[in-house]
């Protein structure tokens, strides 16, 4: 297994109290596989990713338990320097906002080239040539000229392509993309998602795709892990999950997006708001919003029940949900 996150716990200590952002998350991604991690903001999906990348080790964020195995080694126990090396060369992250992730005072050619100079010991000239190649690969027109431009001179979609090029530069085994298309308009979103999927296949990378939008992941993900209040509430192969969700929250998400196969059905949003992480409801954290909630849901935290060999649901009544009786 390329990445194997086990029972991860993260909390944030603030003056108002302790926010339990991640409460026992486990997921795994293999080489050449795409895992979509889906959830509303505050569900813990980004925080989990930041813990994996090792960019969370600053207060007030604190990893309070679990393991992050990368090719069998627990990243949480590595020395800082070793951790940095793994992060630089073997895993990379793509963020929502390329403009703030890229350095505004360096040309994109210098930023891309620097990766090769620093990590591969290339000459500036060779690094520049590699930068242009990468820009061509991610679909930037007139790359040989544009390599001299600054980030703000590119459109949002083109900037996102440059960030993808940065992430790809050292051919990492794993890429974590956190809402990589959220800031873009719909047509550009689809293009960027296609590019990511294509590169993922070409380089056989593991890809963790974090999103709040179930609509964008259907065609690119192999598996989906749905997060709510810092836990995974459903984990399944993407087609199984679309066909029949085994958790009421997943069903709510599915019912709130337009789907070609469900034409004419009314869209409905999930009522209510995600919980305050300093005060997560007892029992099933979803119970205040769940149309299927019963007494037991108010007191007993549902474990991740095994629905089938490669599927799990953290709902006491997953069977009824799966079979559409609610
Ligand atoms: Fe709803 Fe209960 Fe299932 Fe939670 S455990 S999702 S409240 S039915
Ligand atoms: Mg986020």
UniProtKB/TrEMBL annotation:
Q: Does the keyword Transport apply?
A: yes
Which residue intervals define the domain ABC transporter in the entry? 5-254
The answer, when asked if Membrane is one of the entry's keywords, is yes
MF (Gene Ontology): ATP binding
The listed locations are: Cell membrane
Pfam families attached to this UniProt entry? ABC_tran (PF00005), oligo_HPY (PF08352)
What is its membrane topology?
Peripheral membrane protein
User: Which controlled-vocabulary keywords does the entry list?
Assistant: ATP-binding, Cell membrane, Membrane, Nucleotide-binding, Transport
The record ties this protein, via InterPro entries, to: AAA+_ATPase (IPR003593), ABC_Ni/Peptide_Import (IPR050388), ABC_transporter-like_ATP-bd (IPR003439), ABC_transporter-like_CS (IPR017871), Oligopep_ABC_C (IPR013563), P-loop_NTPase (IPR027417)
Task: Please name the NCBIfam families in this protein's record.
Answer: oligo_HPY
Q: What family does this chain come from, according to its entry?
A: Belongs to the ABC transporter superfamily.
Give the protein's recorded name: ABC transporter ATP-binding protein
